[in-house]
Amino acid sequence: MQVGTDDRSLRRFLHGLPGVDQVGLERRSAVLATRSIKAESKRRAIDLAISMIDLTTLEGADTRGKVAALCAQARRPDPEYPDAPSVAAVCVYPDLAGFAAERLAGSGVGVAAVATAFPSGRSSLDVKIADTRLAVEAGATEIDMVIDRGAFLSGRYAQVYEEIVAIKEVCGDAHLKVILETGELAGYDDVRRASWLALLAGADVIKTSTGKISPAATLPVVQVMLQAVRDWHRLTGEHRGVKAAGGIRSAKDAIRHLVAVNEVAGPDWLTPDLFRFGASALLGDLLRQRRTQLTGHYTSADHIGRA
């Protein structure tokens, strides 16, 4: 797909995208939120959601001990029920990526590291490249970068595009997840434009938010992003993914998002390679609901292990 990469060409393309029908989008979200699935499918949906989680710790007080506990939980989310699937990845700051990689070696769980001046995205490109290189050389298999929202909202699309391209090159074999921080964008049309800009620049996955801004992963916003990767696939034949991060805390919410993935993008996207949850708090409720499905009795939070 050929699009010019200067501001004028990108503006012409991005502002030429069809506008989002806000009323229709929100009405469809309301309908999807009421969709139920059969009891026999719920267990499979819960396991799928667990396998899509990026367990995350992104606090200034993070320690190796906390990351070690998180990695242990990622490998074996429910020690009493070892058939529970592992999560998709553990997400940490770049300076802890190497330690996480050691703890997760041979597990199949990815190591994701936030980079590019997370969460603001406000720094020089040289600093962002160095931040990314540090994480990749330490063993990160995935990079979660943030776009400069100030540049995007000012219409400096070429700057955002060039930064994504540069970070993608530094990533090498590591997958690049591009955080749009949708809570800071002006509306659904901007979410669509930011999604397409990231896809044009080479994002493997487009991600709603850092988890530091509210609102984050709302169902309408995730729908817009799913539409973007679906339409990208139709045009190019390439599969790109979506990560819904921030605000998804219950199994019910997760299943609503899985229904949206299936109905908006399609069943091909019902895999951890193409859809993720950035919602560590979600894991506890998924495990409680999973035990309920297995035993027929509700399990309280006190009986589910925590990292």
Automatic annotation (TrEMBL):
One of its GO terms (biological process) is deoxyribonucleotide catabolic process. GO terms for cellular component: cytoplasm. Its EC number is 4.1.2.4. GO terms for molecular function: deoxyribose-phosphate aldolase activity. It catalyses: 2-deoxy-D-ribose 5-phosphate = D-glyceraldehyde 3-phosphate + acetaldehyde. It comes from the Bacteria. SUPFAM superfamilies: Aldolase. CDD domains: DeoC. Gene3D superfamilies: Aldolase class I. InterPro entries: Aldolase_TIM, DeoC, DeoC/FbaB/LacD_aldolase. Pathway: Carbohydrate degradation; 2-deoxy-D-ribose 1-phosphate degradation; D-glyceraldehyde 3-phosphate and acetaldehyde from 2-deoxy-alpha-D-ribose 1-phosphate: step 2/2. It is an enzyme of class 4 (lyase). Keywords: Lyase, Schiff base. Belongs to the DeoC/FbaB aldolase family. DeoC type 2 subfamily. This is Deoxyribose-phosphate aldolase. It comes from Pseudonocardia thermophila. The lineage of its organism: Bacteria, Bacillati, Actinomycetota, Actinomycetes, Pseudonocardiales.
